[in-house]
Amino acid sequence: MRSLITIQEGQISLEQIKALEEVLRKLYAEHICDDKLTIIWNIAAKQHTITDRKWSRSSTVTMEVPDGLETQKREAFMLEVEKSWRAVTGQHPDQVAVGAFDQSRYTDILKGNLTRFSTWGRISYLAKLFTRIFISKARYGVLITRFNQ
Amino acid sequence: MPLYTLASKKPFAEQTRFDIAQVITDVHCGLTGAPTEFVNVVFMTGYSMRRGTILGVNGNVRTGGDRTAGLYEQLNQQMRQRIAEAAKLDLSKVLVTLIGIEPHWVVEGGMVLPPPGEEAGWLERKNAVHAAMGVGTA
Prior knowledge:
- The complex is a heterodimer.
- By secondary structure, chain A is of the alpha/beta class.
- Chain A has one domain: Macrophage Migration Inhibitory Factor (2-Layer Sandwich), CATH 3.30.429.10.
- Chain A has four helices and seven strands.
- Chain A is globular.
- Chain A starts with a strand and ends with a strand.
- Chain B is of the alpha/beta class.
- Helix content of chain B is about 40%, strand content about 25%.
- In chain B, strands 2-1-3-4 form a four-stranded mixed sheet, with helices on one face.
- The two termini of chain B are about 15 Å apart.
- At the A-B interface, β3, α2, β6, α3 and α4 of A face β1, α1, β2, β3 and β4 of B.
């Protein structure tokens, strides 16, 4: 299973990222399933994200869950993630979005992100993504990349 | 939610990015009635786009409630038109793709998002919950 997380440059420290990752893995195992969860952190450069018409200070956590996961389970999971996230980062509730998407839709979204690129664009995107996350994993123990190549 | 991600090879100037985000907010909220605080826009640069496209816009938007297929069609067309104007690009160079997301798959402001059309009551409840938590506006 996959999780893509968007955070703003300079907003969340490496220590906080590691703490958040630990919490997310624990909650995922408790609420959803024991499948391996790959978490990729995507850092947005300053002044490249806008929320509510203003330069953003928001974080967006998206996670893939099994298709047809029951509503009560899904909502309890997302609310717990949101609360735990804010406990670590101290962000305002309006600055945190958590999504738990059916696996099939999540795949559609990820595919949709790639279809706007040329063939070379896709190869280059995936090559840079994997290079960055492997370097990040070796250096910091977590998978971090950036939106802007 | 909605979350609009915009990908291009070359970066747009800061003011242009800001202007495009305002246009996206105007179109999305104007057509759907969603509150502006729901609208997120992310710019990604350095990506080689498919042939004929300079700016690729993907929008993850809520489905259900009072939204119809016609509304999504309108949203796509107006979004493309207004973004092209704000980015000073030919209409044919802008690609807009919308993907629907069930509202109850997302939590924002500490609460599960409402179905489209039920935002007013949701905002009232959210403000009351935040007041009870002792938090003001972000």
